[in-house]
Amino acid sequence: MIGMLEAVRGCVKEEVRADVIANNLANAAVIGFKRDKISFQNMLQGTAPGSTGTPQGSGAPNQDPNLVHVQTDFSDGPLRPTGNSLDLAIEGKGFFKIQTPEGVRYTRKGNFSSDEEGLLMTQDGNPVLGKGGPISVSGENVVIDKTGKVLVDGSEVGQLDLTDFAQPELLEKVGATLFRAVEGSDELPLPQETIVRQGYAEDSNVNVPEEMVTMIHSLRAFESYQKAIQVMDGLNNKAINDVSKVG
Fold first, then answer.
1. Which residue of 50, 148, 164, 167 has the smallest Cβ count within 10 Å?
2. What is the distance between the alpha carbons of residues 181 and 104, in angstroms, rounded to a whole number?
């Protein structure tokens, strides 16, 4: 029975892995999307049942935290020129701050636009925050320099409120491209090497061929665990039937 239970745990592990990969592939074309990745380190280390670890990422269903750990990969995606003055990309570490009805959220998705009042907005209609609040970009010529300073028709109108985190892995993914700060995820100033690129968009960091290969490996592993369960079930049935014939 122990072997069968371990095989069932293996099936659950591969199911979670397949769900995460499917979510990565579904969002591969989304600007600013950060792929989720899975670690089985807790299981390999024999984590005790009382562990308080919590899985992160939106691509995985609820699962035993002792079985797998889902984290977001915050490595940079490739920058793509768009020619749109309101398209911004962060080269290096850092996040844009967005005001949503649920509170401040953080994102790397910088394909912004302006509303009827001239405020810098996300595609979902949420204001992009500057140091003093929402930023007005109403004018003919909008220039945003590498530090996030915003100039409209030659006059400075604001500074993007960009931030970094000491432990970005603690951020909780909300939807595909937003993140929520949780306890322990303290904001930090941007590193000096981080710059803002105007007229660029940061594509997702999903490597589609790599994800497809991993998906195939996961499916084969799932099939192997299923076959192991069938073999052990057959052995158990044989043992029960043979024992019943003794005497």
1. 50
2. 9
Q: Which two tokens stand for residue 70?
A: 């889902």
Same domain? For 28 and 86 the reply is no
Whether residue 244 lies inside any domain: the answer is: no
Identify whether residues 63 and 116 lie together within a single domain. no
Q: Which residue ranges of the chain lie beneath pLDDT 50?
A: 42-65
Q: Which residues contact 156 (CB under 8 A, 6 or more apart)?
A: 149, 150
Write down the pTM of the prediction: 0.77
DSSP string, 92-138: SS-BEEEEETTEEEEES--B-EE-TT-BEE-TTSPBBEETTEE-B--
Collapse the DSSP code of 238 into the 3-class scheme (helix H, G, I; strand E, B; otherwise coil) and give the result: helix
186 and 228 fall within a common domain: no
